């Protein structure tokens, strides 16, 4: 029988989301909001994107979220909010998320990273979290 | 004085590369090979890309390599070979690297991932490494 | 003389648009709205984009609209609304338009398709049309 | 059990390919060639890309190939050879394929289209096909 | 010591901006607005983007702004407003800026250029400037 | 009659190319090499790309070449060789061309610029030209 993949996807989604009013279950909702134009979209998202791919062994959840965020920033696609929330849910710290964005600068340029930073900033505010480490801000480049 | 950033960059490069004839010190060579057209390129690469960004706290080296690979695959830029080698050098397993590429499929599509997979495959062969886990290959989706 | 290309373009535009208050003659308006910054833009759009390219034999109008929509979705450019309207005008069904978007998922990834789906959804609502076929929604992948 | 999706995908692949030595069964081979790095890739390609998406009702095969080609050209991904062959296999004429590429010029610019044209040209030569219609070549833009 | 690069960057920023209430000192503000998520961002922007790159000999300021605008339009990134203002500040005329955008059409397609044109149009209005030359608007292509 | 645009395009092409065996008349050849697949391509290139756009007032030739190169690098399209030759033909110095590429780093990232630098390097070698200015190469960032 094959509730196998669908169940795998649903289980993965539960791992990734913390159900409370501050955490949108964005991933699931995405499929549902398009029922009228593509009724099979929810199934494709849950079964393929989550059951086959997100639930796949190899990377841990934190590494998977970093991979997702990096790909979206590189594409200039600013819808990373949902994935920043997911990242916090699976244990990435705000420092790690901000670190991922800064790390992308030499590969995709400043504009795409700055677009993403704005989104991350808003999510951190909504979620009531903040970075802890303080990379030297005012220090000049030498001694 | 400011050999500070330059040294920071060089130290980071040493962390990332294992000098032997199979491991190209690709990152450093990149700057050097363009001396005749942009003499300052090596400095920009070593000081900014490595001294300021790659050496920045926040993410560990393995997370940084995954971030880099993801961004390049998303851009359709197949020059990930050097970064796959770096990934192996800093402790990513072939399974983690392959897992990163498969994870990108729902975000960037199959064609870009397949281009990258070919490169990773060649690097694994050159480096004499292979994946260990075996996600079910022939199993159908149920039963 | 050469009203030839301009006329060809205008004739094509008439084919593509159904003038009523629900159908924006978006294509023409695009040029006109930039008269103050590039007075020749309307001419370039009408003569080249429509007279030379859109009026060219080879593909029929429905195939041309699908080509256009696919290119824009792949680029992450969400301004497909005007082209969804054009598609309906030339005889594409909502099922064909939705089918085009779902077909793009394996090639460009889910995020870009979902951005486009939102736009198509809004246009269908404005135009009072809906898909008819119902790909199995709740069915799991086997049995 | 679920050989359902896998079978659907295989059936679709048979529709799309004409097995003879000139027609690469490229789509299937793609998965197989990466067995050593991602054993599940063939299954993902056959079941999702072909079983779920390519076999989906909505667009006919010719429209699907045009959609695919357009997306790849827009991405600057020149691996359209396999899809040009598929297009010919399902009944697109060389004129329709060339028409699709020219139609993309106003949306993605000349460079990406020219890269694709070179590939299409090579496939037409290998397949021994040619366009039939002759859009006016030497005619200037006015009478 | 190295206030060298930081000072170089600040000096360049002064060259590029005309401080009055209509000219956002956008470049500097960008770093500052992300202090809470990446305290080192301002330093990276001022020292690398402006001190190392923007202050580099080779191109003059007007050529540099055209290069920047072209890259952003090609990426589909519409945040060119700040750079259009900078362009006017360093002596590019509205005609040159509009000319740059039209010149991009054959390379990136109409949609990306039109998105950028809207932004440039708004900036020209805010800044109270306008193009002077009038490329023939209504003239057909011959005669 | 309208040999007007065609002639305008041909005149522009003559301005941009220096006919000798080292300077490919690449722009014209591009259209001609696709006669068998799109007989109208030469006309579209000469009349639209060169007659309407490249011949348009607003930017001078040097600014136009920089705009073109920037757009192609940003797109990750490495076919800039022809445009580097054109740039040298219209009076851009190797320093200006190299300066354009370095200037792009903060906007598109290092990988795309390095791909382009390799091409420019090859063209400079073929054309027997070299940069003259020497941005400080070995100097560290301070003192």
Automatic annotation (TrEMBL), chains A, B, C, D, E, F:
Q: Which residues form the Carboxymuconolactone decarboxylase-like domain?
A: 39-122
SUPFAM superfamilies of this UniProt entry? AhpD-like (SSF69118)
Q: Gene3D superfamilies, alphabetically?
A: AhpD-like
Lineage, top-rank taxon, reads Bacteria
Name one molecular function that GO assigns to this entry.
peroxiredoxin activity
Q: Which named protein is this?
A: Carboxymuconolactone decarboxylase family protein
Q: Organism source for this protein? A: Marinobacter adhaerens
């Amino acid at each position: 029988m094959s509730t196998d993949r669908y169940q795998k996807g649903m289980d993965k989604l539960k791992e990734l989301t913390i159900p409370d009013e501050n955490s949108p279950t964005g991933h699931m909702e995405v499929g549902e909001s398009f029922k009228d134009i593509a009724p099979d979209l929810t199934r494709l998202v849950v079964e393929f994107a989550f059951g086959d791919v997100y639930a796949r062994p190899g990377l841990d959840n934190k590494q998977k979220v970093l991979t997702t965020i990096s790909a979206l920033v590189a594409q200039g696609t600013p819808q990373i909010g949902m994935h920043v929330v997911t990242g916090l849910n699976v244990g990435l710290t705000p420092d790690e998320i901000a670190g991922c964005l800064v790390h992308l600068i030499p590969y995709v340029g400043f504009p795409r990273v700055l677009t993403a930073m704005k989104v991350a900033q808003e999510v951190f505010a909504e979620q009531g979290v903040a970075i802890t480490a303080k990379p030297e801000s005012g220090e000049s480049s030498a001694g």
